[in-house]
Amino acid sequence: MLKVENIQVVYGDSMLVLKGPSLEVPEEGIVALLGANGAGKSTLIKAISGLLASEQGKIISGTVLFRGDNITGMAADDVVRRGIFHVIEGRRVFQELTVEENLAAGGYTRKDRAGFRSDLEFIYDFFPRLAERRRQSAGYLSGGEQQMLAIGRGLMARPQLLLLDEPSLGLAPLLVQEIFSLIRRINTERKTAILLVEQNAAIALSIADHAYVLENGAIAMSGKPEELNASGEVREFYLGISEHGERRGYKAMKEEMRSAFPAHRA
Amino acid sequence: MDFTFLMQLLINGLVVGSIYALVATGFVIIFKSSSALNLAQGEFLMVGAYICLYLVLQHKVPFIAAFVITMLFSALLGIVIERTTLRPLLGSPVISVIMATLGLASVLRALLQIFFGVDTIPFPEIFPPEPVHIGPVPVSIGYLYSLCCVAVLLTALTAFFKYTKSGLAMRATASSRQTALSMGISVKKVFAMSWCIAAMVSAIGGILLGAIRGGVDMSLANMGLKVLPVVILGGMDSIAGAVLGGLIIGLLENLCGGYLDPLVGGGVKEVVPYIALVLILMVRPSGLLGSRRIERM
Ligand SMILES: Nc1ncnc2c1ncn2[C@@H]1O[C@H](COP(=O)(O)OP(=O)(O)OP(=O)(O)O)[C@@H](O)[C@H]1O
Ligand SMILES: [Mg+2]
Q1: Is the shortest distance between the CB of A255 and ligand 1 below 6 Å?
Q2: Which helix (H) or strand (E) holds A55?
Q3: How much is the pLDDT for A254?
Q4: What is the pTM of this model?
């Protein structure tokens, strides 16, 4: 469905940030893109969605193909019209607009009114907190609520390919689980393909069909989640599991918290 | 008699203030969408007044038709200017954009002088000259038309921003350009639309002002500068603020002009907008209704 081939991106005129990574998202697939801070993950999906242009970024070589069409360097609004929606990193809601207006902006390119209404209801059903605040300025939502809104806005566009940049950023663990179950649901129910950038590698690998690790602007590793799970490097750097097999994931953290603060046991 | 004088000053202030409000709104719309100050706003106003006048005088077009044609012309002018002068500067520093609008102002002014000369051209009487009496106060019909016209326009604009898809796109772009892009909103279209609207509302302001004053000349462009304190007073990025600021300054000017100027020998009317501006900015640095970005505690 989406094919990125040897793409090179510079910011300004000189700084080479992407050094020719290639990547593929199959129809109806969920692909995870992992990597350390500054590896170039956000840059890679901005290169796909056309948002690079607004940041003085430029694709200097390589191609982006979507369903066989060359969309390399295409303007962002045309990319959205083709069915690719990019949920930008860091809950960028329109602060002055109400929750509902934010969602409406997400559905800006849509023509079908009925589908628009039913998607709105779907999002309010899934995030009742947004429904309660639908007439409120989005700027006054909590961080987590803003993230729900940013994701909801992406669903309003009914894209064929959803690019998610760190959807779990700053969310409580329970909400992270919910968001990921939503992503999975969108994928199976609507056949939406998903390219997922995540710091939380454990949970990203748990829903992905395929994963890539980006290091310093190049693909360092790629494979099925099980293969990456088995790789020592990924275990150590991205999953927080040391070679001694001691798990320091979310479960272990929770156990620690419980024994340290027994009073918190409800 | 004294009461009548006061009422006349208030009505004058309201009418002039409402035109300020209209022109200031055009200014704010451009500022919100592209963070640029349009220093050619006064020239837009003049273009509107001259074109309408030209159609009525030279081609004997009925006023209403001339008004509509002027609107269409202004809309086109806004789009052409955005395309030719502003779009090439997309992404360059705001100061370059402001300088470009300054250059644009000179060009428009020169063109108008070439076509229409520098003498005041009298505006034909389009409103009946006899005033209506509201209680004991005589009010010219042109004033009433002007007030109604501005009120209708501002309401329509508000509804446009609140309830239409294009209005939503414009507000989203004002809030965050990059995020708006990611929604599939064409920011270029939004810019073009804001220049188009700004040129149209200014042209209407110019026509109304010309009709009220009874004549059109180059001094109309001073409105562009006069509206600057209005916009800053209102808070740069608030349409409601622009309206409020326009009315306040219109009223202040007329009251001071009526009561203080005879005492001190004139001049108060001209400076009072700036005095009000400084005083209000001391108390509210972001203007009357300007946005302080939402800060969550
Ligand atoms: N607009 C920009 N101009 C210049 N350099 C940039 C710009 N955006 C990103 N960079 C640089 O490009 C590199 C990759 O940035 P990018 O945002 O793609 O990283 P990332 O993998 O998404 O990191 P994180 O996990 O922290 O979000 C970084 O070194 C960053 O400093
Ligand atoms: Mg990033």
Answers
A1: no
A2: none
A3: 47
A4: 0.87
